[in-house]
From TrEMBL:
Its EC number is 3.5.1.103. It holds the Pfam family PIG-L. Zn(2+) binds at residues 15, 18, 150. The keyword Acyltransferase does not apply. This is 1D-myo-inositol 2-acetamido-2-deoxy-alpha-D-glucopyranoside deacetylase. The gene is mshB. Keywords: Hydrolase, Metal-binding, Zinc. It comes from the Bacteria.
Length: 315
């Protein structure tokens, strides 16, 4: 394992674009610090709507080529974030976007929502045992806002974390590995309220409408937030990554809209709830680093702990 950087972060998302919206600043920050950042995306987002009129033909009920197109958008977004390890769960197209909750696509063969959790988790166990992340980031049990693929991504990620640590589970997938800390994506309600107030006062006409706070995934009372990552230095990378998902996202300054044309804020401080593992912050305080308290990992600069690194090797 001496070829792995000291700090290793795994993010599990449902569709291309979710990673940039939720965690773009965090991913850019850790990638810049030399941490291994691994993104696993569960579907290609084939059922998405398309914003640019000239690309409308890609959608599922016309050419049905949006999935392939979004592979390219995701690759471009990862380039903006400096993330080189991005994969699709089971390979591109193994699981298909299930559409919105209640859609007939939910029950189609191959739809992610229609997939056995343990079967999908097996693919993620292989990644976990290979990359050996100390930190996992995914959604809460509601998937942040109830989309079936987001709920399923939560279930698969949590199940895979357990299975990866179980020595009795499929030894052929690699040596067992226990993840130290698991986080769910969050937005504190007070921060969302302030950001929407700013949107209303400074850019009321940027988009045809303005989203409701509860349209933002993962909004919870502030008391649930354990961790905040200040990504201000990587705000430009985050918005560039969001712009790369051109079929899905329209960015206007510090605001953006999805295909529903409802404006919402881009958060460059990103928030998390630690749900497994021990907080590295004093009681009552928030963490400012996802790796705080992880054994064998120290400080925010990150690269000095690389196992097996020789002095001068990075000169
Ligand atoms: Zn999504």
């Amino acid at each position: 394992m001496t070829d792995l950087p000291a700090r290793r972060l795994l993010l599990v998302h449902a569709h291309p674009d979710d990673e940039s919206i939720n965690n773009g600043a965090t991913m850019a920050l850790y990638a810049a610090q030399g941490a291994r950042v691994t993104l696993v995306t569960c579907t290609r987002g084939e059922e998405g709507e398309v914003i640019p009129p000239e690309l409308a033909h890609l959608v599922a009920d016309r050419d049905d080529t949006l999935g392939d197109h979004r592979i390219g958008e995701l690759a471009a977004a990862m380039k903006e974030l400096g993330v080189t390890d991005h994969r699709f769960l089971g390979g591109p197209g193994r699981f298909r976007d299930s559409g919105m909750m209640g859609a007939e696509q939910n029950h189609r063969p191959g739809a992610f929502w229609n997939t056995d959790v343990d079967e999908a988790a097996g693919y993620l166990v292989e990644v976990i045992r290979s990359v050996r992340p100390q930190v996992l980031v995914t959604y809460d049990p509601d998937g942040g806002y109830g989309h079936p693929d987001h709920i399923q991504a939560h279930r698969v990620a949590m199940r895979a974390a357990d299975l990866a640590a179980d020595p009795a589970y499929r030894s052929g997938l690699g040596a067992p590995h226990a993840i130290d800390k698991i986080y769910w994506n969050r937005v504190p309600r007070s921060v969302a309220e302030q950001a929407f107030a700013r949107l209303r006062s400074t850019a009321p006409d940027a988009f045809p409408g303005i989203a409701a706070i509860d349209d933002v995934p993962g909004v919870v009372n502030d008391t649930r937030i354990t961790t905040e990552i200040d990504g201000a230095a990587h705000a430009a990378a985050k918005t560039a990554a969001m712009r790369a998902h051109r079929t899905q996202i329209a960015v206007d300054g510090p605001f953006f809209a999805l295909s529903n044309d409802l404006g919402q804020p881009v958060f460059t401080t990103e928030y998390y709830e630690l749900v497994r593992g021990t907080s590295g912050a004093p009681a009552g305080a928030r963490e400012h680093d996802l790796f705080t308290g992880v054994p064998g990992v120290s400080g925010a600069s990150g690269t000095e702990d690389v196992p097996g690194a020789e002095s001068g090797a990075r000169s």
